[in-house]
Design brief:
seven-stranded mixed β-sheet, about 325 residues, alpha/beta, Quinone Oxidoreductase, Chain A, domain 1, six-stranded parallel β-sheet, 2 domains
Length: about 325
């Protein structure tokens, strides 16, 4: 089969196409013939999901058909249309922990299915499992035009929250108004806390989703309300440290948390899948949430897709399609 591999070279990540054997599913795994896979910016950042060292298969989420079952798998059957978080998703075939495989709702395209698993499970983690976002609360999302940012906006609105988003593109903010964005702040810098306070009548945001990283961390703390919650999910600025206002942390009784699966074991990861299936999948199945896909690239155009993501021109998700031309 053909599969894409990634490695770092200096301050860049490089991707190449290789011919590799089709893997065999072990007990508890399923082999999926991939139809589409979603891009995630963190995988392309040196020091993010891709560390210096030996190359590895690239891709973290996708959708396809179950082609083979490992021993003991009863949760799905051959031919099922599934979507999942899965290492090595940019390939003709990928192995998936059966506990991670989610049968796709009827009506979802392969591309839509591929844009959901990692992105929306991260958002479920931030907004519901850890963030406890409630109707009527204010949520601030930095870098809101990203895949995770747009998904956070969509789920936040279904939950009844009011959403503020930052972006360096006024045009993207205008487009997000159609998805319910309440307040758009056109900036790439750490200069938005005053605007957040003004929008919230001086109270601040109840939940912050920080997609940007350390360069705006102090500003997001300034923008938080009393008993506010702060989720750190990305660092596209590659700034890994930020100043903490201890007085604000103390007096405003803030909660700070990170969102990552890196140190979770398989059962903990499976638990996040069950939470997503219970809480968010019904919203996707009945159409309240529809994944926003900016552009779909054919499998052979991986390099063009990577360049497009690095250009920051997209709004929502970029997807690679394995469909034969």
């Amino acid at each position: 089969m053909q599969s894409y591999w990634i490695q770092t070279e200096g301050n860049k990540t490089l991707i190449d196409l290789r011919d590799t054997p089709v893997p065999e599913p072990k007990a508890g795994q399923v082999l999926v013939r991939m139809h589409a896979a979603g891009f995630n910016r963190g995988e392309l950042i040196v020091g993010g999901l891709t560390k210096p060292g030996a190359s590895k298969q690239v891709g973290q989420e996708g959708a396809g058909e179950v082609a083979k079952l490992g021993e003991g798998v009863t949760s799905c059957k051959l031919g099922d249309r599934v979507m999942a978080r899965c290492p090595g998703a940019f390939a003709e075939y990928a192995l998936v922990d059966a506990r991670e495989a989610i049968v796709m709702p009827a009506g979802l395209s392969w591309e839509e299915g591929a844009s959901i698993p990692l992105t929306f499970m991260v958002v479920h983690d931030m907004l519901l499992a850890k963030g406890a976002l409630k109707a009527g609360e204010w949520m601030l999302v930095t870098g809101i035009s990203s895949g995770v940012g747009v998904a956070a906006l969509q789920l936040g609105k279904v939950l009844g929250a009011k959403v503020i988003g930052t972006s360096g593109s006024a045009e993207k903010l205008a487009r997000l108004k159609a998805l319910g964005l309440d307040v758009g702040i056109n900036t790439r810098g750490a200069d938005f806390a005053d605007a957040v306070m003004k929008a919230t009548d001086g109270k601040g945001a109840n939940l912050v989703v920080n997609n940007i990283g350390g360069s705006v961390f102090a500003e997001t703390i300034r923008a938080l309300a009393f008993e506010g919650r702060h989720a750190t999910v990305g660092y596209v600025d590659e700034v890994m440290k930020g100043e903490i206002d201890i007085e604000a942390l103390h007096t405003k009784r803030l909660t700070l948390f990170g969102v990552s699966n890196k140190l979770r074991n398989a059962e903990q990861r499976a638990a996040t899948v069950r939470g997503f299936v219970d809480d968010v999948l019904p919203m996707i199945a009945d159409g309240r949430i529809k994944p926003v896909i900016d552009k779909v690239f054919p499998f052979a155009q991986m390099q063009a897709a990577k360049a497009y993501m690095e250009s920051n021109a997209h709004l929502g998700k970029i997807v690679l399609s394995m469909a034969k031309s």
